[in-house]
Amino acid sequence: MTTTTQYYVASSVDGFIADREGKLDWLMQFGFEEFTAGYEAFLAEVAVVVMGAETYEFVRAEGHAWAYPEQTAWVLTRRDLPRMEGGHIRFAQGDVRDLHAEWVEAAAGRNIWIVGGGQVAAQVADAGLLDEIVLTTMPVVLGAGTPLLPVGTATGALEVSGTEVLPSGAIASRYRITR
Ligand SMILES: NC(=O)c1ccc[n+]([C@@H]2O[C@H](COP(=O)([O-])OP(=O)(O)OC[C@H]3O[C@@H](n4cnc5c(N)ncnc54)[C@H](OP(=O)(O)O)[C@@H]3O)[C@@H](O)[C@H]2O)c1
């Protein structure tokens, strides 16, 4: 099996993953099933999850249990953050090219999920290491917020597959990044 590095994420129509206050109420209003098409099958193939400090702090502030007990998690931060219980969490910092090599080794042929946010995913994309964006576009416009993928260099045309329209009008698609 080959490891695929995937950014599985939900955004607004205008390309934001959190609103201008860093909140996700605009997403949650649709219900979990509406922005997690194929989630169980997707997660079953994931061995490594990666997130930035802002996403980790959001998850921690929400007070939920750690959602990835089976995976090895890398949290990218330059801060000394408290470790959440119930996971295999490593804190790391530095160049994502070096870190990605560690993720691939840990994944051992299964997949790497870049949970987010956009800042971390963009570093991986700019390094040419992002293979797929698994995106659910929610039928809502936010006007401002946290960008989905603020790359420094535009990608080429993406290969789109598996488009599905969910009952709310959310559109789930896979975008393959070709190099
Ligand atoms: N809609 C969705 O599906 C979805 C998915 C994921 C996240 N989100 C939301 O997106 C928002 C956060 O996204 P974001 O793009 O603002 O931030 P982020 O990518 O989660 O975190 C960025 C932070 O991570 C640390 N970091 C990033 N790269 C690093 C590196 N190479 N080495 C060391 N530290 C590194 C830095 O923090 P420090 O230097 O301060 O440590 C940086 O400020 C949250 O509101 C979250 O809820 C939404």
From TrEMBL:
Biological-process GO terms, alphabetical: riboflavin biosynthetic process
Pfam families: RibD_C (PF01872)
Protein name from the UniProt record: Dihydrofolate reductase family protein
Residue runs in coiled coils: none
Gene Ontology molecular function terms on file: 5-amino-6-(5-phosphoribosylamino)uracil reductase activity
Bacterial bifunctional deaminase-reductase C-terminal domain residues: 107-163
Species: Herbiconiux oxytropis
